[in-house]
Queue: 4 jobs
Job 1
Amino acid sequence: MKHLVSIRDLSKEQALSLLQDAQEFSQVNAREIKKMPTLRGRTVVNLFFENSTRTRVSFEIAATRLSADVINVSADSSSVTKGESLRDTAQTLEALGADCIVIRHPESGAPRQLADMGWISSSVINAGDGTHEHPTQALLDALTMQQRIGIDLSGVRVLIVGDILHSRVARSNLLLLTTLGAEVTLAGPSTLLPDTFTDMGGRISHDFDQSLSEKPDVVMMLRVQKERMLSNFENDEARYIKDWSLSSQRLNSLTKSSLVMHPGPINRGLEISSEAADDPRSTILLQVTNGVAVRMAVLRSVLAVDA
Ligand code: CP
């Protein structure tokens, strides 16, 4: 595997193999000495055109644990602000020694362009592009489900809720989870879950309470992405909370073994209540922890050392 741009790049076997590698790395990460020589001599550049806490830091920790050299580049403090193009930026980073570019970009398709245009020979990993995909987030979410529910996710019922329209996390999760045999329902108001999603493979719901009454195994809440909305969301906020927030009342309707997931960052009191975020069934921080192991597995795979 040279690049990871989309979950579509992975067969079921490749996805399961990455998840198995990640599970092994999560055991390494629980040891006192976590460092491995696997990527010694390799250079990983985190090139971020959008803000990030979890993804950027976990890629940095993952590469460091594998003994790679890691450089972090934020577009807003780089020569991008002087008008340098993506192509010239990437070629410059490769000339400086990058073997792998981990890219987050506001435009859907930017990582694919970097991987496919022949501008560079470095590996490319998509760390989230526009509203398109976030493949390593889907892998860490699947690893979290495997750890809590079991390795085989076939038949597991996953309800993904909220701002589906703007969510690259929802797209990557839908693709990966259906590949792994899970039954996915997308739920949201029609403005944030338009009919264009009906052919994506999941069931569609516009009624959160009805979907919760089906007792899903996993409820994955999504952040309301106000920064990507064209109209002012503030006018709709009270209505959204009433209809779509995972309130303490809705939390109480879940089974004892249900998982409450969220990719973060969370808006407490908007899409998720503090009671739900901090409930023992919440895996929010386990998801963050698993991000390191998943990114170690992906980095090792694309850099093809001992993989
Ligand atoms: N889940 C996620 O991508 O979080 P960050 O934006 O903090 O990286």
Job 2
Amino acid sequence: MNALEVDNLKAGYNKSEVLHGISLKVGKGQLVSLIGSNGAGKTTLMRAVSGMIRPSDGAVSLAGKPIQREAASKIVRLGMAHCPEGRRVFAPLTVEDNLLLGAYHRLPGFFGYARKAKARLDHIYALFPRLSERRGQLAGTLSGGEQQMLAIGRALMSEPTVLLLDEPSMGLAPVMVDTVFDAIQALKREGITMLLVEQFAQMALAVADYAYVIERGQLAAEGSPDALRQDPRVLEAYLG
Ligand code: ATP
């Protein structure tokens, strides 16, 4: 059974359809990348998968369970976390409070909360030592790269089995992009299933087990990274 399956998904905003029927699969423990130019619908797909917007048609299943009608908060509890484009950390809160908010829907309500939360925090701080050093600092004062680590850390606090990562490298200095990709590799070694949207197609393919190309709300190509690197259309449009 696939960790995540999307079947003929349609979604958009108001009356304008952006996704015209997208189907994809992410196997357990796989990292699948989505490539496509600006406005192709990648972010809309992530939103429709995680319940941030309601699909107009089609199905999304998480470990075989249909979730396309569930609320985003329920989808988090079922094991999917969405690290959104643009990071969206809570600027006036500390690093640690931002992280704890990410655990809100998943940790036990009272008994055992402190122990569980501490274990999760330790795990995130081991992955991103920079966040540990800055745990008491207000998130709004972090650099872009640190905010990206925080956004990923916050998503990980809910102990997801499937993580959606939307353009984690956006606007970051090259050294920070490397740090974020090192973290993505570490998460892969932990066995977290990931769906990654990434503007740098080369990097998206370098970490992926499989990839899909989206153009104007439809799939234009799919395949292993090696196969896509040799596809003349992909080469010309995204890897040139
Ligand atoms: P980018 O890399 O620029 O974010 P993308 O592939 O993620 O591109 P989307 O953000 O999904 O593309 O946008 C797809 C289409 O949906 C675009 O035409 C965009 O203008 C439109 N769109 C995105 N967000 C909204 C919104 N909140 N309301 C209305 N239209 C939107």
Job 3
Amino acid sequence: MRILVISDIHANLAAFEAVLADAGQVDAVLCLGDIVGYGPDPNECVALLRDLHPLVSLSGNHDWAVLGKLEVEDFNHDAQAAIRWTQSALHPDHRAYLQSLPPAGQFGDFTLAHASPRYPVWEYITDTLTAAENFEYFNTPYCLVGHTHAVAIFEQIGANGYCDLLLPEYGVPLSLGEERLILNPGSVGQPRDHDPRAAYAILDDAARTWEVRRVEYPIEQTQARMREIGLPRRLIARLSYGW
Ligand code: ZN
């Protein structure tokens, strides 16, 4: 099966549409959460996502905050403003859909978590120490996470808590071997790894490959919508930089 893996769409419809067009025909979709928050099109993104079939989707910390399952005050000032606007704009049936999504799950050999297998909603796996500690919190060979908005592959070295960070070559399928991995496809709607292009991955579970891709999208279209709504300027500017 050719599986589209996406995370952190963050209500950026232009980026989400560009990813779906670039990915082409897929047999299934895995979404690792944070469908809304930050961006200007929460309803359009939820509607587009839930029509994809078959779909396994998680919720993330921003989705939870919009639903009132996390304190909005725990987020930074700009994120709070975006969450509050999203709360006012989200249709009740889209809210109910987000409410139905868990923050963690499993798909075949792949454990799924929005943030980390240890703390599915909050923990950022940005370094090899944190990644190494997380390998004991899942039993499958591989774990897929989002949340950091940065493409990454953490490879477990031996069973004693060592771990390497690998960076994939975009558009080149990486063979999944014996090593246990934590794989992050990056963010569709708000990349933070100094590359403003939308990020996603194609997982081929028969060929056992993982391919991360980047795709350009009309950033200024999303930024114009954010300006219309009055979302914070820093959130608008950061899309240009991928940071
Ligand atoms: Zn996020």
Job 4
Amino acid sequence: MTAPSSITIRRPDDWHVHLRDGDMLKGVVGHTARQFARAIVMPNLTPPVTTVDAAKAYRERILAAVPEGMRFTPLMTAYLTDNSDPAELVRGHKEGVFTAAKLYPAGATTNSDSGVTDIANIRGCLEAMAEAGMPLCVHGEVTSADIDIFDREKVFIDRVLRPLLKDVPQLRVIFEHITTAEAVAFVDESGPNVAATITPQHLHINRNAMLVGGIRPHAYCLPVAKREKHRLALRRAATAGSPKFFLGTDSAPHAREAKESACGCAGIFNAPHALESYLTVFEDEGAIGFFEDFASRHGPAFYGLPVNEETVTLERVECEVPSSIDVGAAELVPFHAGETLRWRFRD
Ligand code: DOR
Ligand code: ZN
């Protein structure tokens, strides 16, 4: 089969993104809005977005930061804490403010200090969410000091996720940014109320990218990239056409100096070339025919939202990814910095 010279698909959505706030928000939101119609916006600001009012105000700040001429719908999430109020969550969902709620195990990642210390503490919230049909987005890593960082996702499945779904079987769960073959298997064997997002970086890199030939902070994110066999399992899952897997970039900007540090921040800024990055994977796996499903159909279907009517086109033209991007508030090193990708998003 000859390679197509362009591909047009329904406009995709990003089912997991960090847009930040203030000047950083102003600098990065256009990169997401350029490619995606909607996005599930992470609530891990300081302070975190825990109330309906805070989410409404944040949504307004995002909309105000979207560049002229771009249409973009932020889908807000509630940050769960040990003290979250089930009634506030469900009210926010019913009012169309909270699309979902987000579980950060306390201490798992950036701005997760106010997260949940024990899943038992949010049992009432999870039952109320299941009842209301409100989805739970999950950062699936345990945080115990005795668990090796490369095992934290796998252990989370056994200690937290499996028991949770046994106890609250109707809960709709998005296991976010999965990184392991075990997570793929868990999602595959779970009911239709369990799905997962997959980032571009976890489809492209394994842990060698971070550690071979020198320590490379721009390849560091959480959950951390794993061994090659896990990357291959993720590529198979993403490109096989299963409705349980869909696009979520986890684009997470941090200023260059915050990454290139003795204690560098976790997060990969992949928004500028997200679709080009994903499409390369689908092409290499001989699965271009499933690209639109992964990028534009499976997410809306899981969240119960309509698909987008607009389209986007990617052309088979070389696309040079800059070594850094000045977003005003900061200098950011994007995913694929300095590489040439073989697809280009058409503006
Ligand atoms: O790498 C990450 N960065 N993983 C997360 O879970 C959070 C994110 C961030 O906010 O920077
Ligand atoms: Zn994230």
